[in-house]
Amino acid sequence: xxxxxxxxxxxxxxxxxxxxxxxxxxxxxITPKITxxxxxxxxxxxxxxxxxxxxxxxxxxxxxxKCIACGICERNCPNGTITLTTKMVDTxxxxxxxxxxxxxxxxxxxxxxxxxxxSCPQDALExxxxxxxxxxxxEKLVKKLNYLPEKEEPAPSPEELARIQAExxxxxxxxxxxxxPKRQPWRRQRLSMPPRQLPKRDRPPRLPRHQKPKxxxxxxxxxx
Length: 224
Prior knowledge:
By secondary structure, this protein is α+β, with helices and mostly antiparallel strands. It has helices spanning 2-30, 72-76, 115-119, 158-175, 218-223; strands spanning 54-57, 82-90, 96-106, 125-128, 142-144. The strands form two sheets. A three-stranded antiparallel beta sheet has the order 2-3-5, with no helix packed on it. The chain is flat, with a radius of gyration of 48 Å.
């Protein structure tokens, strides 16, 4: 009886799962179909804004980006997709400044984790939703993000130059040691000091020669 009961119970559960699956299939028959006529509707197709397709640098209206070449995005990338090349330039105040020379991005190895975007301190990166990234060779997947020519920094005004020079002079003056008083040339002088009196040691009195003890050697003892 137990085997017959198990048989009918398994049969009933199988029929119930089949009916549930046919319900899902039956809904697809009455659901209206949506066909994307791509690429004919390329101009009207709607791509979600949160879709991550390609990493890009943010440029303002004047063609400047916010990247300061700190390298945080390069260190946080788990696949080594980002490679930064930097250079050192001289600023108007005479200091050295690191600037971005080349920002290389390998789309083929990117996992779209967005760690580079979230860790950027200057908010200089973002992901675009341009999904048309198909190419025929892998070399074309390596892209240079700072593709626009670098803008020259505006020259400082005369007031700023005067302020920078004053700060520089103040730092130089603060770094100098205070003037030392002049010392007289050293001359060797002979000092007239009394001779030092040494304390007399407690020594035994010196005996006369005829009272000194006679020393007998071993040879004299054997000859006796």
